[in-house]
From TrEMBL:
Keyword Zinc recorded: no
Protein's recorded name: Uncharacterized protein
Cited Gene3D superfamilies: YVTN repeat-like/Quinoprotein amine dehydrogenase
Highest taxon in the source lineage: Bacteria
Organism name: Nonomuraea aridisoli
UniProt keyword list: Signal
N-terminal signal peptide: 1-23
Record's keyword annotation contains Magnesium: no
Length: 741
């Protein structure tokens, strides 16, 4: 029989032409196409402004704005004219700006953590480089003497100075084990610097002459994640705004509390006093602090500021304030008369990095801007972009029964949006609940089952342990289950059958060092509402960013750049595959495509994974972040390039990858080719056009000799195309002969 089969195969290979659909010279399918839909939104995000002067002595507001790249804008607060915009190349924005006593303006950028110097006379911007190696963000610039400035860093918690004569001077780590020096204050006469430390709550006083440091933060507040965020030294007193907007005034040498229990919403206070008063915003109102009586109070009026102040200055005795951060608002107030005015300043909008992408069930593609929170939609058919409005930075979103659920930072709020109704801030999307009171600030992961929405979150700054929150659609009630895995956050979820599968990260909230060693999967019984297990699928991995049900019915996951496949019935990991690229954060995702392949966006790479051979094809080497898959199988993502410090920049553009056409939708994914009920022993595999060998056999359409002849023809073409070997063809024909009756 074997000899007869071999003769038949040889004859077919020599003298039988393959069907046209299987011909060797058949054009190969395209590798897929990428379409760039361009910048989706331009918007305004003013982080901070400094009221100074230009070279002629005219008033000028120097404001730092988020952008791709970040910029410094120069605006006259009195005439309300825009004078100039200077680019901070290779940055995405800046949290720090000041003007030195020699007239130079300095900005401190992220994510490259460089200092830039702007010359108001020449209008030139110069990149001075990094003051401390290995940092990503600079904070809290303050002017000193002789052209010197001071600032702080993240994640090393350094303070530093710069002067044109001396260059950079690293003042060292301000508090061991912490990551943020988020603001500084300086007494130039006494040569003392204060550093606000996040996120565990410390305030360090440093003698610049001796280097002596000591923590003056009140003892009872140390370790509290409601840490000092903005500090100003005015009138010999240290004004502190904590992260939860609690104001406190301290003696700068002893840390003795002079006043507390008032709200400060602004980024600190005025840098100088007006007589005996220091000004700030409390909520949306303008307040002042009486230095003689240590009393905070609303200014007479009262005066509505409309939002938090992000920069203060006096011009001819009149107070001016930037009101932030997104609407160009400004305020002026005359302390002598009480007269006030609210107005707009012409800061130019900038392209801003997309924070997240979602392919909607309504056919539109949704984008949300980093920090700014503006939501826009793209109609793929027309290319039209529509800006809906601002919500907040959206770190996770999810579609269920036509509605979109948004997980927003910094309050850990979950919102519900109905796209069939007009977008109205505060009502559509409407807030279902917020989790900041439960110590959670970033909802990343969602799943829905049995009339409930499941939300996975990571904790607030300075805290460990995420949460799983269960929201009942019918009653509107929710339950927060803290730390389903001890000291770990919840960043991926999948509901399958009666089980919820959750993936964790060992990372805590901002400014923390992990307590756990490796990420886990946990299971949760949807009927009883109880956790049933936890285990480590990839030893040593920090984060499990994605869990999906694969085309083979198994669970596929991503853990620090490694693909794992596990059996949901046994929780045993059956396969592990190292993928190109490393851990790229919570934005690493898996998508099961209609062509049965699994696509991964991982650390900027776009990968296509064959579910039969587990072969990985790299479709894009970089520039693929925050992916989402639409109903047709197209993948949508934002642009971006990774810098030397691994930060991703240049992410304002939206792109689409369209996979190649699939000639055999719904392919048979049997591991071995089965002919009738006979296992041929030949591994099933794909042809380049998306058909598997099992698809092409079509044994259900033939019996007897016709089956053998059909299999022989198919295998001959597959051998010619080098899809299978002659030996494998022999096995297939033998199986057909065995199964013919």
């Amino acid at each position: 029989m074997r000899r007869l089969t071999t003769i038949l195969l040889a004859a077919l290979l020599a003298g039988t032409a393959a069907p046209a659909a299987l011909a060797q010279d058949e054009p190969q399918p395209p590798a897929g196409t990428v379409t760039d839909f361009g910048v989706q939104s331009t918007a305004l995000t003013v982080f901070e402004g400094f009221f100074g002067t230009d070279t002629s002595g005219r008033p000028a507001v120097y404001s730092v704005q988020m952008g791709t790249p970040g910029v410094l804008s120069v605006v006259d607060p009195v005439t309300r004219e825009h004078r100039h915009t200077a680019t901070m190349a290779d940055s995405s924005g800046a949290w720090a700006v000041t003007q030195a006593d020699d007239g130079s303006v300095y900005t401190g950028s992220y994510p490259n953590a460089h200092v830039y110097r702007y010359d108001p006379q020449s209008e030139e911007m110069t990149d001075l480089g990094a003051p401390v190696p290995g940092q990503t963000v600079l904070y809290g610039f303050q002017p000193g003497e002789d052209g010197r400035i001071y600032g702080g860093t993240y994640p090393g918690a350094h303070a530093f100075s710069y002067s044109p004569s001396e260059g950079f001077r690293d003042l060292g780590v301000m508090y061991e084990g912490q990551q943020y020096v988020i603001d500084v204050a300086v007494d130039t006469e006494r040569e003392v610097l204060w550093a606000a430390i996040g996120s565990a709550g410390h305030l360090v006083r440093m003698d610049l002459r001796t280097g002596e440091k000591r923590d003056i933060w009140p003892e009872e507040l140390r370790g509290d994640p409601n840490y000092p965020a903005d500090i100003n030294l005015v009138g010999g007193k240290l004004f502190v705004k904590r992260t939860k907007l609690d104001g406190i005034v301290l003696d700068p040498d002893t840390g003795a509390v002079l006043a507390r229990d008032f709200t400060m919403s602004s980024r600190g206070t005025t840098r100088v006093a007006d007589g005996s008063y220091v000004y700030f915003t409390s909520g949306t109102a303008l307040w002042r602090y009486d230095l003689t009586t240590d009393t905070p109070e609303p200014v007479p009026g009262p005066v509505t500021a409309g939002g938090p102040g992000v920069g203060w200055g006096f011009v001819d005795g009149r107070l001016y304030g930037l009101i932030g951060n997104y609407a160009r608002d400004a305020l002026s107030y005359d302390p002598a008369t009480g007269a006030s005015e609210r107005f707009k300043l012409p800061f130019p909008a900038q392209p801003i990095d997309i924070n997240n992408v979602s392919a909607g069930q309504d056919g539109k593609i949704y984008t949300n801007l980093y920090i700014n929170g503006t939501v826009a939609t793209l109609d793929p058919a027309t290319g039209k972009v529509t800006e809906l409005g601002r919500v907040a930075q959206t770190d996770g979103w999810f579609w269920h029964e036509g509605k979109m659920y948004l997980g927003t930072y910094p309050n850990g709020a979950v919102l519900e949006y109905d796209p069939t109704q007009p977008f109205r801030s505060g009502s559509n999307p409407r807030e279902l609940f917020r989790l900041i009171g439960d110590g959670q600030n970033r909802p990343h992961a969602f799943a829905a089952a049995g009339g409930r929405l499941y939300v996975g979150t990571t904790p607030d700054y300075g805290l460990w342990g995420g949460a799983l929150t269960v929201h009942d659609f019918a009653t509107g009630e929710h339950e927060v289950i803290r730390a389903p895995v001890a000291d770990q956050g919840v960043i991926s979820l999948l509901a399958r059958g009666g089980t919820l599968w959750g993936g964790t990260t060992i990372n805590g909230g901002g400014g923390t060092t992990p307590k756990a060693d490796e990420a886990k999967i946990f299971t949760f019984d949807l009927a009883t509402g109880t956790k049933t297990s936890e285990f480590v699928p990839v030893p040593g991995a920090d984060s499990i960013t994605s869990i999906v049900e694969g085309p083979d019915g198994l669970l596929w996951g991503l853990a620090d750049g490694e693909l794992f496949v596990l059996d949901p019935d046994t929780s045993e990991v059956e396969r592990r595959v190292d993928l190109p690229g490393g851990y790229g954060g919570v934005q690493d995702e898996l998508h099961v495509n209609p062509d049965e392949h699994v696509y991964a966006s991982l650390d900027g790479h776009l990968l296509r994974i064959d579910p039969l051979s587990m072969e990985v094809t790299e479709l894009r080497e970089d520039g693929t972040y925050r992916s989402s898959q639409d109903g047709a199988g197209n993948l949508w993502f934002r642009s971006g390039a990774k810098s030397a410090n691994n930060a991703v920049q240049g992410g304002a553009r939206l792109l689409r990858y369209t996979p190649p056409a699939d000639a055999c939708p719904g392919s048979d994914l049997s591991q071995n080719v089965m002919i009738k009920d006979v296992d041929s022993g030949v591994a099933n595999r794909y042809r380049p056009d998306g058909c598997t060998v099992e698809d092409l056999i079509k044994d259900e359409q033939h019996t007897g000799p016709a089956l053998v002849g059909h299999v022989a023809k198919v295998t001959a073409a597959l051998v010619t195309a080098k899809t299978i070997t002659p030996a494998e063809a022999t096995k297939l024909i033998t199986a057909a002969r065995t199964a013919r009756y």
